[in-house]
Structures are given as C-alpha cells and as structure tokens.
Amino acid sequence: MASEQISAKDFPRKLRGYDEEAVTEYLRQLAAHIEGLAGENQALREQLQATAEQLAYMKNLEATLRETLMVAQRSAEETTRNANFRAEGIMGTANEQARRIIQRAQDEIGACQAQVEELKRQASLYRQNFRMLMSAQLQILEDSGIGQEHQGG
Is residue 6 within 8 Å of residue 38, measured between CB atoms? Predict the structure, then answer.
C-alpha cells in the first residue's frame, strides 16, 4: 500500500464515528511515515545495488589479481628453469674448457720433464765423453813423456 492510497482513503460516515479531523491527521502522519520508509527503502536498495556492484568489481579484481599472480609465478618458474638450464650449459662448457687447459698443462709438464731428462742424459753423455777425452789426452801426455821431464830434472 502506497502513501497516496492512505491519504486518499475515504471512510463512510456514521453517526457516532471517530473524529474526522483526527482520523485525517492520523492518516496524513501514517502516509508521511510510509513515504519516509519508502524513501529509506529506496535509498537502502540503491545502497545495496551499489554494494553489489562494488562486490562484483572486487570479485572481478580478485580474480584478475589471482590470474596475474599465477601468470607471474609461472613466468618466474620458467625464468628460473631457463636460468638453471643456461647455468648448467655454461658450467658444462667451463668444465670442458678447464679439462682441456689442465690436459694441455699436463702435456706441457710431461714434455718439459722429457726435455729435462734428455738434457740430463746429454749432459751425462757429454761428461762421460769429456772424461774419456781428458783421460785419452792424459794418456797421450804420459806416453809421450812430456810431463816427466819436469819431474825428474
């Protein structure tokens, strides 16, 4: 029932009935109260509608944020996987290069050791040949008697 219907309501008249002015005033107050309640009801409906729209917006925002977070998490995981894969490749390459460098160094050490051994062998052979030469020269000197003239004289 609307406030207009209450204000427009007409009651039949009786001989000993209610005071017509009091009833009319009461109906006017009742209509004003109902009109106020209707306005308040409309305001609450509008507020409820605005709250429902805000809730829908927030739920949509929440879903968007969740999706964004999941995309970011997947992206971070993929970036980590790619970085690990690249790091493993770099480490493999570095290890292979280090192995080759160590092998070359060991080969050079071996070559140097062989060269040192060869030089030692040649020095020993040179000393041996030099001793034999000196011994032969000394023998020649002793056999020729050149060195004995000074001793006996």
Answer: no
Burial of 132 (0-12, 13-18, 19+ CB in 10 A): exposed
Output DSSP code: residue 18. -
Place of tokens 């927030």: 58
pLDDT tens for the 153 residues of the chain, in order: 677 777 777 777 777 777 778 888 888 888 888 889 989 999 999 999 999 999 999 999 999 999 999 999 999 999 999 999 999 999 999 999 999 999 999 999 999 999 999 999 999 999 999 999 999 999 998 888 765 665 555
Question: What distance in Å separates the CA atoms of residue 96 and residue 90, rounded to the nearest whole number?
Answer: 10
Residue 98 CA to its chain's centroid (Å): 28
Q: Where are the domains of the chain?
A: 3-112
